[in-house]
Amino acid sequence: MLPRNFRLLALRDFSRVYRLGRRLSSPHLSIFYLPRLGHAQDQNFSRFGFVVSKKQVKKIVLRNRFKRILRACARPLLSNLRAGTDVVVQGRGPLPSLPSPQIYQELSELLRRADLLKK
């Protein structure tokens, strides 16, 4: 699990990222990202939120499983992520048929395209 300070939890944070952020997509994932403005202490780390819709995966057990897989794929990328950005990762398409390495590869590619990974 990601530490609490690295997670987006509040609905207002998700709404702000969806409303004001930029979006990039791959066949199975979409990311919405937005630089966080505010106090200097908020700029020390980036935060992630994960969404798998009921439309994509009907059963709650499977939705939660895929959110756990997405969290596990995001954890190793935290050390390479630029600080001060909120990122919402949204599952799309046939998630149940994807292996974890492919999810990790798509997520890291989206973050690289968004220029959120350190060089």
Which short descriptors sum up this protein?
four-stranded mixed sheet, about 120 residues
Describe the structure.
This protein is α+β, with helices and mostly antiparallel strands and 119 residues long. The chain is built from 3 helices and 4 strands; from the N terminus they run H-E-E-E-H-E-H. It has helices at residues 11-20, 60-74, 100-113; strands at residues 22-25, 29-35, 47-52, 85-91. The protein has a 4-stranded mixed β-sheet with strand order 1-2-4-3, with helices on both faces. Strand 3 (47-52), helix 2 (60-74) and strand 4 form a beta-alpha-beta unit. Helix 2 packs across helix 3. The two termini are 26 Å apart. The model has no long low-confidence stretch (mean pLDDT 87).
